[in-house]
Amino acid sequence: MAESQSPGAKPHPTPHPRPISPHLQVYKPQLTSFTSILHRLSGIVLSVGMLYLVCWLGAAARGADAFAALQDFNGSLIGRLLLLGWSLAFFYHLLNGIRHLAWDAGFGFELPNAYRSGYAVLAGTVILTLGAWIAAYYQMGAF
Amino acid sequence: MGETGKSLRSPKSLRSPLGRARGLGSAKEGVNHWWAQRMTALALIPLGLWLVASLVCLAGADYAAVTAWLAAPTSVGAISLTILAVVYHAILGMQVVIEDYIHTPATKLVLMVGLQLGGFAIATAAIVSLLVIAFAG
Q1: What's the complex ipTM?
Q2: Which member of B83, B91, B95, B104 lies 3.0 to 4.6 Å from B126 by CB, making a disulfide possible if both were Cys?
Q3: Which CATH number does the domain housing residue B57 bear?
């Protein structure tokens, strides 16, 4: 039994002896840990993307000039790379989020299934992102 | 059970073992955070797909076409709903990121306050923008 609060226990060296996140460097890289790290990373990326989306709405509210300036930036190389990153993060976080919701409901948590769904999420992310960009370029009359 | 087990039941203490244990865990808030994260996630499956599909359809559209779409009542409603769900979901997610990686109490507090107050400010900015486009456009 863990009795860290018992009177005989040694004082902890840090002021807040609470559990912290595991250290990544002691783990062998695996698909399951990779998809987990990517989920958190894509979530952070999407939080920034939300700020950009609200800026885009603000520019549209401000007027035609502000909106045109932002759309010009969106069309630039840096703008397109940012939008590509956000669309990749969106589709990844969406698909892996559905994977997490299935796990929460008790489905697919066996290791072979967790690996299968992990590969499906990665493949689906590439397919949906490519599909969205092909549709967007088609919309712009690129072909 | 060792000495602690005995002392918990000692007649000197009038507190029950449950009373002693309550509030000592790491998850004092219970399941609220976990549940809210899942509910916003569920809402964001259709809302997020709808928003991204709409933005793809607007690729290359000019100012008049974009604002006409943004001003439609369905757009105002669905975008507001999406932004609210995204902000709530992002606050919950970023909170865990801050809790996991920031161990300096002062920095953590500043980031938490910024995250939670900033989140509501961003949601408000988005909704005000939508209303300006809808009514002043």
Answers
A1: 0.81
A2: B83
A3: 1.20.1300.10
CA-atom Rg of chain B in angstroms? 23
Give the domain extent around B90: 31-136
Helix intervals (H) in chain B = 3-8, 17-21, 32-57, 63-71, 73-101, 105-136
Does a structural domain hold residue B18? no
Report if residue B66 sits inside a domain.
yes
Alpha-carbon dihedral of residues B63, B67, B70, B74, nearest 10 degrees?
A: -130
Closest CB to A135 among B56, B97, B133: B56
Per-residue pLDDT of chain B (137 residues; tens, 9 = 90+): 444 445 555 567 788 877 777 767 665 566 889 999 999 999 999 999 999 999 999 999 999 999 999 999 999 999 999 999 999 999 999 999 999 999 999 999 999 999 999 999 999 999 999 999 999 85
Contact B93, A46 (CB under 8 A): no
CATH C-level class of A31-46+77-139: mainly alpha
Cβ–Cβ of A100/B49 closer than 8 Å? Answer: no
User: How many domains does the structure of chain B reveal?
Assistant: 1
Residue in chain B closest to A132 (alpha carbons) equals B56
